[in-house]
Amino acid sequence: MKQVINKLNVSQNQRHDYIVADFSKPDELKNNVAEYLAADASPVHILINNTGGPAAGKAIDAKPEEFVNAFQTHLICNQILAQSLVDGMKSEGYGRIINVISTSVKQPIPNLGVSNTIRGAVASWAKTLAGELGEFGITVNNVLPGFTRTARLASIINNKASKTGDSEANITAEMHHETPAKRFGDASEIADAIAFLASPAASYINGINLPVDGGRTGCL
């Protein structure tokens, strides 16, 4: 991370920085963000919430604490970050809050019971915020990645292969077949959608769920 920051500072002639926080400890996150903002008076214009998803499994089999933990690391931490940064966005008349969640908010994904539930809560939270903050030049939108080449997708494929006895190659082929684009997405394609929503060009787009999934989601 330090190497990336140093390169950005040199190549962009700007100052970039980062903080580290454990999302399983919301109070720690709140304190870390408060300390950072107190040391740097520059408002933050763009907030991208992107937290790793809960473990796979059926909703009926999940322990109550799995829902509580996921709610905390996703929605509660998102709320802390939004509350910490929104005053700066208001003062600038410009803000973008973008949540990277899941196509499950439109169409639940089998065997991701906890994730489906929590992602839906984040989507409703975002839609509510969009209505509250729009007048201040702040938009709140959700990006819904489909099958994207990530370590999480590789883990899902591996777990399914272990449980079913099918090969990872066959499971991958089935996933490709489910997607009209007939391939997995690349992380850069998700990033492109986020960059657009964060830009002034998206100033009149607010409160939406944007699937970036190669056409896989089967509903409007």
Strand order of the largest sheet: 1-2-3-4
The number of domains: 2
How much strand content do the residues show?
A: 5-15%
* Gap between N and C termini: 38 Å
Question: How helical, in percent, are the residues?
Answer: 40-55%
Mind sketching the topology for me?
Layout: H1 2-11, H2 26-39, E1 46-49, H3 64-92, E2 95-100, H4 113-133, E3 138-145, H5 151-164, H6 168-178, H7 187-198, E4 209-212
Parallel strand pairs: 1-2, 2-3, 3-4
Q: In summary, what is this structure?
A:
The chain has about 220 residues and is of the alpha/beta class. The chain is about 50% helix and about 10% strand. It folds into two domains: about 1-40, no CATH class; about 45-210, Rossmann fold.
What does this structure look like?
By secondary structure, this protein is α/β, with parallel strands linked by helices. It folds into two domains: 1-42, no CATH class; 43-212, Rossmann fold, CATH 3.40.50.720. Helices cover 50% and strands 10% of the residues. The chain contains seven helices and four strands; from the N terminus they run ααβαβαβαααβ. Helix 3 (64-92) links the parallel strand 1 and strand 2. It starts with a helix and ends in an 8-residue tail after the last strand.
